[in-house]
């Protein structure tokens, strides 16, 4: 694989990329201020980009390397795995298969893992669960696999919806038990539906804004699971939960990330 390495500056970057394309580059990549231009054969280069270096590199399959690093993630009664590690799920564990892809939520982030653990600690039998910011669908699918009667996943990013839907199919969750839709709470387009459990892996400022919506969307006493919160922002979330009358607040930390649980106020 023939690669031309060209150090660049912010000012010259655009012009250099144009010149490399014009010289016949088949692909361009930037890493740490260095432009890497892929060529089939050595090309005649404009003087402005002539101070780089041609290198013959061994082809690397970055995707294969990334896949090889993935390990099963234990989260309470659930083990989250990519499809090719399904056989590594231990006896008695519920397998949750997520195809690593474009949407956030492979299980490898501490927040996702803690949220699945918190769901796993509940008795979800017959419960209706709302997952706000569903991404790959991992939390809604976990809820369905843990026995929820129905799980709804909402996300403002429309690209996540087909991905989450496909992940539900991979896990054999029937369409009647899970639904994914573009949207959120508090956008004015949500229904007045009330859920038994609400889980949201977003970020502290958004939890602060949505705390009133969480209270309205949960049945009185219903469990709330919030994560995506950096330790330094915990006070903001605590204050929002106090303001909206949530009780039984618990906090769990994993490195710089926090998961908070609480119960919805009596209406
Ligand atoms: N639920 C998955 C998990 O736990 O791994 C994904 C969480 S990811 C950190 C946050 C997701 O929330 C993203 O997919 C993002 O598009 C979505 N999101 C961001 N703001 C949102 C909002 N206001 N309402 C709903 N979804 C939102």
Automatic annotation (TrEMBL):
CDD domains: AdoMet_MTases. Its EC number is 2.1.1.-. S-adenosyl-L-methionine binds at residues 112, 133, 155, 201. It comes from the Bacteria. It catalyses: L-lysyl-[protein] + 3 S-adenosyl-L-methionine = N(6),N(6),N(6)-trimethyl-L-lysyl-[protein] + 3 S-adenosyl-L-homocysteine + 3 H(+). InterPro entries: Ribosomal_L11_MeTrfase_PrmA (IPR050078), Ribosomal_PrmA_MeTrfase (IPR004498), SAM-dependent_MTases_sf (IPR029063). One of its GO terms (cellular component) is ribosome. Keywords: Cytoplasm, Methyltransferase, Ribonucleoprotein, Ribosomal protein, S-adenosyl-L-methionine, Transferase. GO terms for biological process: methylation. Its main location: cytoplasm. Belongs to the methyltransferase superfamily. PrmA family. PANTHER family: ELECTRON TRANSFER FLAVOPROTEIN BETA SUBUNIT LYSINE METHYLTRANSFERASE (PTHR43648). Methylates ribosomal protein L11. This is Ribosomal protein L11 methyltransferase. It comes from Deinococcus aerolatus. The gene is prmA.
């Amino acid at each position: 694989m023939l690669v031309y390495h060209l150090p660049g500056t912010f000012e010259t970057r655009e012009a250099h990329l144009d010149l490399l394309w014009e010289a016949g580059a088949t692909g361009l990549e930037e890493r740490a201020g260095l432009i890497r231009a892929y060529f089939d054969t050595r090309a005649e280069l404009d003087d402005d980009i002539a101070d780089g270096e041609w290198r013959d590199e061994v082809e690397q399959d970055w995707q294969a390397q990334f896949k090889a690093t993935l390990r099963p993630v234990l989260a309470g009664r659930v083990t989250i795995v990519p499809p090719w590690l399904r056989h590594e799920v231990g006896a008695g564990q519920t397998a949750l298969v997520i195809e690593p892809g474009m949407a956030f939520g492979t299980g490898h982030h501490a927040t996702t893992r803690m949220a699945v653990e918190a769901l796993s600690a509940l008795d979800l039998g017959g419960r209706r669960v709302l997952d706000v910011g569903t991404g790959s669908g991992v939390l809604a699918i976990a809820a369905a696999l843990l026995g929820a009667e129905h799980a709804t996943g909402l996300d403002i990013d429309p690209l996540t919806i087909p991905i989450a839907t496909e992940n539900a199919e991979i896990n054999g969750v029937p369409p009647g038990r899970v639904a994914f839709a573009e949207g959120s709470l508090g956008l004015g387009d949500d229904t007045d539906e009330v859920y038994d459990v609400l889980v949201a892996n977003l970020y502290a400022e958004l939890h602060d804004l949505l705390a009133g919506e969480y209270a309205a969307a949960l049945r009185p006493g219903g469990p709330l699971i919030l994560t995506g919160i950096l330790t330094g922002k915990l006070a903001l979330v605590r204050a929002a939960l106090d303001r909206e009358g949530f009780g039984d607040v618990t906090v769990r930390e994993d490195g710089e990330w926090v998961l908070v649980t609480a119960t919805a106020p009596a209406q």
